[in-house]
# Entry
Amino acid sequence: MASFPDTGSPPTPLAKGLFRAQVAANEPLCTGHAELILRFDAFPPAWPGQFLQIQCTDPDGPVWRGGALIRRPFSIGGLRRGPRGVEIDILYRVMGVGTGWMSRLKPGEPVSVLGPLGRPFEPPPPGSLACLVGGGIGLPPLIWLAGELAEAGVQVLAFCGARTAELLPLRRDPAVPVRGAEPSAAWPALARWGVAAIVATDDGSLGARGRLPDVLADWLAARAADAPPVAIYTCGPEPMMQAVAGICRRRGLPCQVCLERMMACGMGTCQSCVVPVHDPAAEDGWRYRLCCTDGPVFPAEHVIWE
Amino acid sequence: MIPRPDMSVSIGRLTLRNPVITLSGTCGYGDEYAPFADLSALGAFTTKSVTLEERKGNPPPRIVETPAGMLNAIGLANVGLERFVTEKLPVLAGLGVPAIVNVAGHCIEDYLAVCARLDPLEAVAGLELNVSCPNVADGLVFGSDPAALGNLVRKVREVVRRSVLVVKLSPNVTDITATARAAIDAGADALSLVNTFVGMAIDVEKCRPVLANVTGGLSGPAIRPLALHMLHRVYREVAGPAGVPLIGMGGITDWQDAVAFMLAGATAVGIGTVLFVDPGVPVRVLEGMEDYLRRHGLASARELTGRLNALNRGPAPGCNTAGRGVRP
Ligand SMILES: Cc1cc2nc3c(=O)[nH]c(=O)nc-3n(C[C@H](O)[C@H](O)[C@H](O)COP(=O)(O)OP(=O)(O)OC[C@H]3O[C@@H](n4cnc5c(N)ncnc54)[C@H](O)[C@@H]3O)c2cc1C
Ligand SMILES: Cc1cc2nc3c(=O)[nH]c(=O)nc-3n(C[C@H](O)[C@H](O)[C@H](O)COP(=O)(O)O)c2cc1C
Ligand code: FES
# Structure
């Protein structure tokens, strides 16, 4: 899918369906996160920002025999097509029953997957520098986006935040230095695409100390007036995305946010995952849209933050 | 070779090619669900509740998973009658499955307006009255008060001439046979039961309810034994004797569950929450049910209805002769 920026928007309706995957690998990334690699015989075209609904119980057993009931949504954190099928990366944080089940998956075991779901990121305006701003477990869709954009020749810079170094869901190359708020190539998941990252941690244990939106704001303020225009992509905790959206609004920068909601279906049938958005056509100026089918990616200026 | 069992069943004048129905609020208006399953394999499809005016629904969070089930407080978010008729119904009509349109309202006039508009439309096979939505204040009155329910159904009956009229019962009542009887006496062609049970979940760290609506409706395997019991009671005490078909629902996940509801008295079964887990469940339920009929030497799915070999058939000791209070 190297042609992401020049194909424009993906075709609608997007092909999607129910697939059976096999675990290719399932390894810890850091103390808080792990990476699951799923192998599919075939998988429809997919774009960064899209997600999967994973059934967090054995697909060969009864539909429910204990454990998680409804599927759990996960961003596609990477996708590779090869002669032996399609590999998809899921980066996850163990939160409860569903992700706990995932953490016990062994190579070769089957997993039932619904996808690819949702509306992906749009490519940036030609000539822009794409800045990807990801906090904690919001990083996976941006890691894939970084690779797709870089492959298509777009300039990319990543901003990655976590509470503390141990919780940054990226493997680190210890040979490469990380100095304050300077871009570094210490993260192979990004560096292999030639993408550098500025890292911030709340406690200063890695990279800059402080909140990621502040680091982004400082970086933007220090840029030369004639530097190329910036397009922002963000995913992470909602207060972080709201702060990033605020910075973009004040500076007039295009910003796409990738939101999370509690989801039952992921297919647009249950109406559980609503996001309030501005709608001039509506009587009272707003309406709900669905995170699973209208999103999870929204233009930041559409979102009404809670 | 053993002939293929006849899977068709009748809900009033409506003949379904099989007894498996997808449930209101769990499969949208059809178009959203169609990429994931073959709708034409179903007996019928039930739409999200349609109200006279468009409704935004409740603020999020609207759902939370609970042990063996989930709570939802969607709040009847829907596109409203006119957009349903112009945008959704034509798509649904093309999916090759009889459509049951679920109808909800604030007041009797709302129900009448929606039913009168939908009844003549060829794409509408049935109208199901949602008198039992636990997530909006107004629905509960009809669902829990037999007199109010009877009054509503009687008036709706006058405007529903073509399509089959189904009344969906609330489980949030002391005696479900009372509302069942009221709906049947007022002219319902069939009853569906049950809707969700009112429940609640609390986030103890934040000291607040998980759902913005505070309460929500419980669905999924957690409610199955309760739903089965209610269906069985309604069948034995009211609907069976009156010859009114029942659509059984509540936590069905596989063909064994579906057959259990049929044995307890259902003519057809509804599949809801589990569609979120696996949209292919209805087809597997059908296959399993067909195989069950073969193994038990039954020629038709209709033979399953009420076939239960109850251990304590007949009134329990001390019950009055009218049969009320008989425990299944
Ligand atoms: C579009 C989207 C993409 C996501 N991408 C990722 C990802 O790449 N990696 C990752 O680790 N997590 C991701 N999440 C969050 C992930 O879905 C939840 O962490 C997961 O569902 C938790 O399940 P559990 O059973 O382990 O936890 P539970 O015990 O069920 O709940 C723990 C917490 O997880 C959240 N949660 C639970 N169920 C859901 C649900 N159905 N939808 C949304 N949030 C839920 C709630 O905040 C809840 O308090 C994504 C969520 C969405 C909506
Ligand atoms: C998310 C969700 C939305 C629902 N919306 C409606 C609705 O709009 N109208 C209605 O009559 N029932 C609605 N229901 C109730 C179901 O149709 C069904 O009666 C109930 O969920 C029990 O079946 P189940 O356990 O198989 O889901 C909804 C259920 C769920 C889970
Ligand atoms: S999760 Fe069901 S509509 Fe979005």
